[in-house]
Write a structure and sequence with these properties.
About 35% of the residues lie in helices and about 25% in strands. By secondary structure, it is α/β, with parallel strands linked by helices.
């Protein structure tokens, strides 16, 4: 079986998670890295013993005999990365979100289809066993008709996180915590609910950071399965790193975070017990990359396809449109 040879596009902090994850996949290896600055990309390649490096993907991919890429660039740059890689016949594992523009996402998906390459997006929370269990409970009807789905994410980011950075910019980040920190849990809500119908209302605020976009916001969503619920995202809650999703139906309620099921009240069912430890970022990255490699080897769709992942950006874009400009409170 051919060993998958991968190129990192971008070498920021998240790229190290992929280096670690792929080091545990016996039939795949990261053999190249591409970056904008020659000296920086050479230094990164040297630090991690990556044999091929440079500024041009085509050259590095050819020299390395690459079969796939991992895209770790800022959100808005994903478009040019996926378009170029797909035209070169390279399978694409793209960091979340797929892009900040619904229209460009469609072009990216279409290009991958045209050139016959796989496209997956790093919404790896979907691989968590307890969240897959909740998905099965919902789909089986054991929660009854889903009525309310509330999503919350309260983080804190120091001002330095945004200043002199692409974070919190319209051009590269595409927004604030809705599209950056919140996109994982928003993706989970959409995955569990089968998509959304409309954004009923939304408001955004700047409560702490002097940035272009929101650092705090709310939205009310009507989901495809009929549920109504609130999404709250923030990077202005000092001392907090809190996220969760609460699903209520006519037969029960489940509340979960990224690590575990916190509340399980479903008549006739005992709270589930999982043999494995709580999922970690490391373990979820491993499941993501293993699925990506297997989708290539087995010529099947990856678990998280571009078509599925694009809905998250579509919803967040609709939230931004409904909310208008952030309201500054300082």
């Amino acid at each position: 079986m051919q060993k998958q040879r991968l190129i990192l596009i971008g070498h920021g902090g998240i790229s190290k998670s992929y280096l670690k994850a792929f080091s545990k996949v016996p039939n795949a290896e990261i053999v190249g890295v591409v970056g904008r600055h020659a000296e920086k990309v050479e230094a990164f390649a040297g630090e991690f013993s990556i044999p091929f490096f440079g500024k041009k993907l085509g050259e590095v991919a050819k020299n390395a005999g690459a079969t796939a890429v991992i895209i770790c660039t800022p959100n808005a740059v994903h478009y040019q990365n996926v378009m170029e890689a797909s035209r070169l016949g390279l399978h694409c594992l793209c960091e979340k979100p797929l892009h900040i523009s619904p229209e460009k996402q469609q072009e990216m998906i279409a290009s991958c289809k045209e050139y016959g390459v796989k496209l997956t997006v790093s919404y790896m929370r979907r691989f968590a066993s307890h969240l897959q269990y909740i998905k099965n409970i919902i789909d089986s009807g054991k929660l009854g008709q889903i009525t309310v789905v509330d999503v919350g994410l309260k983080y804190f980011r120091p001002k330095e996180y945004y200043y002199n950075s692409w974070h919190g910019t319209h051009e590269l980040d595409g927004g604030g915590p809705f599209i950056q920190q919140g996109s994982h849990i928003i993706d989970l809500a959409l995955w569990l609910c089968g998509g959304y119908k409309e954004v009923i209302t939304a408001k955004m605020f700047q409560v702490y950071h002097d940035i272009q976009t929101e650092d705090h916001g709310y939205a009310i969503i009507h989901y495809q399965n009929g549920a109504i619920g609130m999404i709250e995202t923030s990077t202005s809650c000092f001392g907090l790193k809190k996220e969760g999703i609460e699903i209520s139906g006519t037969k029960g309620t489940i509340f979960a975070n990224y690590s575990e099921i916190v509340t399980f009240d479903v008549p006739g069912l005992d709270p589930p017990i999982f043999s494995e430890n709580a999922p970690t970022n490391e373990s979820l990255f491993e499941r993501l990359v293993v699925d990506f490699v297997q989708s290539i080897e087995e010529d099947r769709s990856p678990f998280i396809q571009g078509e599925s992942a694009k809905t998250t950006t579509e919803l967040i874009t609709d939230i931004y449109y409904k909310a208008g400009e952030p309201i500054r409170s300082f």
